[in-house]
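User: Fold this, then the next.

Assistant: Folding the first:
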Amino acid sequence: MQELKFALIYENEVKNVFICENYELANQLARASYGDHAFSVETTRYITNIGDKYENGIFYHKLEDDSFEKVMYIPTEKESIAELQSKLTQSQAVLTETYESKISLENKILVLQQIITDLYNKMEENK
């Protein structure tokens, strides 16, 4: 069975961080330690420490000056690859659009050159 990292939360504060096999057992440990209002949150994808805050589903790391900053989510390798693939697809779409715009502009220039040539030829004929 896979071991997961959990934060024991009581009164919006991380009281402990521990490894456990499943959510139910982690929750039981939280309630046994701090009472019925304590709970555990799986934090394998976050770097959390004792003293951090947990409010509205978001972890906040306590800084040395007692202020807090949001804890960053650490994506899995699969999520990172998917994000990179998405960015690559977006970049390819922008490059394609730019290329098509360039070709369209070149075609418009050719048409204008032909019109100018035709006008010049008509002017020469009318002399």
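Now the next one, as you asked:
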Amino acid sequence: MNKIFSFLVVLSFCISAYAQEKSEARKFWNSLQNLCGNSYEGSLELPVNDEQFGGKKLVMHVRYCDDKTIKIPFFVGDDKSRTWVLTYNNDRISLKHDHRHKDGTEDKITQYGGISSNSGQATIQVFPADQETKTLIPAASTNVWWITIDDKSLSYNLRRLGTERVFKVVFDTTKSVENPEAPWGWKDN
């Protein structure tokens, strides 16, 4: 009986490890990990005429990666206030937005985002606004963010359901650019 139990435990572990390795969320995560250490220039696709992002150099730097966390500072011209923080846990990925002031202190509107409701697909993960976001920014309670990735590009997207609010920036991941200086709140090591 002990041999059968031991066999079933080992078999269960192997199946679980195989399933996790092959999950869509894991494949997506691994694709992001492959970009680690590199920076890529992007172009704003939506909205076409945007005062905050339009006409500015847009760069993402996949600056920090470990097994559970990926941090991607997003530079808008000289503004170094934004970092996308992705976390992998139990075959789900969360996206949070870390906003900082020039002195490194947190902005009052920070750490908003969402968690994927399922394992998604290897090329796209969707993050509906979580309760923390609804509490912090009531108007953003219907936000849905998604990130797409393939062998040529990464896109970061936002849609506020029920409104005209939409945002899409696409980064060409076939050619890296020079890594920028540290974003606000980071130490440049």
